[in-house]
């Protein structure tokens, strides 16, 4: 059985690694979803986009486990405005990711039927960049939260 400090450390490390992995997936998608995409590009981004959803789910699971049982506990997080700003921003980023994901699925089907298919990437790229901009706020909110900002006044 792990002691409390080790479990807290492992949850924190897993949470951070998952966040960085999700940032990497988002950066990859921004780099690949561009004018002139080929069928190979579409297949590649389609495979990677699946990881976006998997990582997001793992981040939520590990993050809420960490909030509930780790060092500060749920009593700290549940009343912290920056915690809820972080969660809300993560939710908005997740909702924004639906548009590129749906487009990628459509592109994959179209490219399967016609290997010369070239997608219109304008709308998905806008959503990907919006995701990236909002995603950048999450570590700012996390840093503020970890330092006690956002707690109700006593």
Brief account:
The protein is mainly α and 154 residues long.
Looking at this protein, list some descriptive labels.
single chain, 154 residues, mainly alpha, Four Helix Bundle (Hemerythrin (Met), subunit A), elongated
Describe the structure.
The chain is built from seven helices and no strands. Helix 1 (4-32) packs antiparallel against helix 2. The protein is an all-alpha fold and 154 residues long. The protein has a single domain (4-146), classed as Four Helix Bundle (Hemerythrin (Met), subunit A), CATH 1.20.120.
Beta percentage is: under 5%
| Gap from first CA to last CA | 38 Å
Please write the string of helix (H) and strand (E) elements: HHHHHHH
What is the CA-based Rg, rounded?
A: 18 Å
Q: How many structurally independent domains?
A: 1
Level of helix content?
over 70%
The shape is: elongated
The top-level CATH class is Mainly Alpha
Give me the CATH fold name.
Four Helix Bundle (Hemerythrin (Met), subunit A)
Q: How does the major sheet shape up?
A: none
Low-confidence stretches: none
**Average pLDDT rating:** 95
Number of helices: 7
How many DSSP E strands? 0
The CATH architecture assignment turns out to be: Up-down Bundle
SS-derived structural category: mainly alpha
């Amino acid at each position: 059985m792990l002691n409390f400090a080790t479990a807290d450390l492992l949850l924190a490390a897993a949470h951070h690694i998952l966040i960085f992995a999700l940032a990497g997936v988002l950066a990859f998608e921004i780099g690949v979803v561009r004018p002139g995409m080929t069928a190979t590009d579409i297949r590649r981004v389609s495979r990677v986009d699946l990881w976006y959803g998997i990582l997001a789910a793992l981040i939520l699971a590990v993050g809420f486990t960490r909030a509930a049982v780790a060092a500060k506990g749920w009593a700290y997080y549940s009343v912290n405005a920056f915690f809820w700003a972080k969660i809300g921003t993560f939710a908005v980023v997740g909702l924004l990711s639906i548009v590129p994901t749906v487009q990628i699925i459509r592109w994959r089907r179209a490219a399967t039927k016609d290997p010369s298919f070239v997608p219109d990437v304008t709308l998905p790229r806008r959503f990907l960049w919006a995701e990236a901009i909002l995603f950048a706020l999450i570590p700012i909110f996390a840093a503020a939260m970890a330092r006690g900002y956002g707690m109700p006044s006593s």
